[in-house]
Design a protein that fits this description.
Strand content: 25-35%
Largest sheet: 10 strands, antiparallel
CATH topology of the domain at 169-283: Thiol Ester Dehydrase, Chain A
CATH architecture of the domain at 169-283: Roll
Number of strands: 10
Shape: globular
CATH class of the domain at 169-283: Alpha Beta
Domain MaoC-like: 163-274
Domain Peroxisomal multifunctional enzyme type 2-like N-terminal: 18-145
Strand order of the largest sheet: 1-3-4-5-2-7-10-9-8-6
Distance between the termini: 51 Å
Pfam family, one: MaoC_dehydratas
Number of helices: 7
Low-confidence stretches: none
Order of helices and strands: HEHHHEEEEEHHHEEEE
CATH superfamily of the domain at 169-283: Hotdog Thioesterase
InterPro entries: HotDog_dom_sf, MaoC-like_dom, MFE-2_N
GO molecular function, one term: (3S)-3-hydroxyacyl-CoA dehydrogenase (NAD+) activity
Structural class: alpha+beta
Length: 285
């Protein structure tokens, strides 16, 4: 069965109900680096549930990780799929626990050509059970083996341009050697992130860190640097994934602040490669 534009762009899911607990949010917060110093009062609210647990906003990316139904039966060459971008708009802070309702649809398909692949965007709308919007999320994948399916050749989204001046600040995070082993407990059990033999078959010298783990680690860097650790100040968080990260490497988050826009780029210090690029975070005072 051949992947076709008309089939993909018509795909929509029925609303689905989810529930989660503060234990899941505690685990997520710790898995992206919160509480490395448990006595730091600025981070204590992310690792201790009293008076009320705070949640790193990018936890939105794992709350619905079990829903793969929209593309589950599509004839996609998953062995050649890369996570291209992640975009989340936060309509309110993530509660420490709750009941949710979500629906998803294919919002864009871009055909780069038979030998170049296709870009597929899955948009997820998530609300609290009472109907209040919680977040809107775009998961963008690059299906390298599925070009030539038809449809537009250019995306309506353009990468966020970073300022040309020197960064206004830098936040350095030393990832843990066991970071991927910890992060996979939030829901992504892909063996690429834990099994050395599997990683080598995929072309990597060792298991790589989840892209969404790097995404969450960077969100922590922005919370600390420009939001005074207040998750309510973060209104959106977008970036492109440009290079894998290996657990134990050092991530340097370069940050530029222009009004309510914080731009960012993340570099792996040990290899001098950019892991996350064209980052844009909308913040409020």
């Amino acid at each position: 069965m051949t992947l076709a534009y008309d089939d993909l762009i018509e795909r929509r899911s029925e609303p689905r109900a989810y529930s989660y607990t503060d234990t899941q949010m505690l685990l997520y917060n710790i898995s992206v680096g919160m509480g490395r110093d448990p006595t730091d009062p600025r981070e204590l609210g992310y690792i201790y549930e009293k008076p009320e647990l705070r949640v790193v906003p990018t936890a939105a990316a794992v709350l619905l990780s079990g829903d793969s139904s929209l593309l589950g039966n599509a004839p996609i060459d998953w062995a050649r799929v890369l996570h291209g971008e992640q975009r989340i708009a936060f309509h309110r802070p993530i509660p420490p626990s709750g009941d949710l309702v979500s629906s998803s649809h294919i919002s864009e398909v871009v055909d780069k050509g038979p030998d170049k692949g296709a870009i597929i965007t899955v948009t997820v709308e998530c609300a609290l059970a009472g109907g209040e919007p919680l977040f809107t999320m775009d998961n963008v994948i690059f299906a390298r083996g599925n070009g030539g399916l038809g449809g537009p050749e250019k995306s309506r989204h353009t990468p966020h341009a970073l300022p040309e001046r020197a960064p206004d600040m830098r936040f350095v995070t030393e990832t843990r050697r066991d970071q991927a082993a910890l992060y996979r407990l939030t829901g992504d059990r892909n063996p690429l992130h834990i099994d050395p033999a599997y990683a080598k078959r995929a072309g990597f010298p060792a298991p790589i860190l989840h892209g969404l783990a790097s995404y969450g680690i960077t969100c922590r860097a922005l919370l600390a640097s420009v939001c005074d650790y207040d998750p309510a100040r973060m209104k959106s968080f977008d970036c492109r994934f440009t290079s894998p990260v290996f657990p134990g490497e050092t991530l340097e988050s370069d940050i530029w602040v222009d009004g309510d826009i914080a731009s960012f780029r993340v570099r792996v210090a040990e290899r001098d490669v950019v892991a996350l690029n064209n980052g844009r975070c909308l913040i409020t005072n």
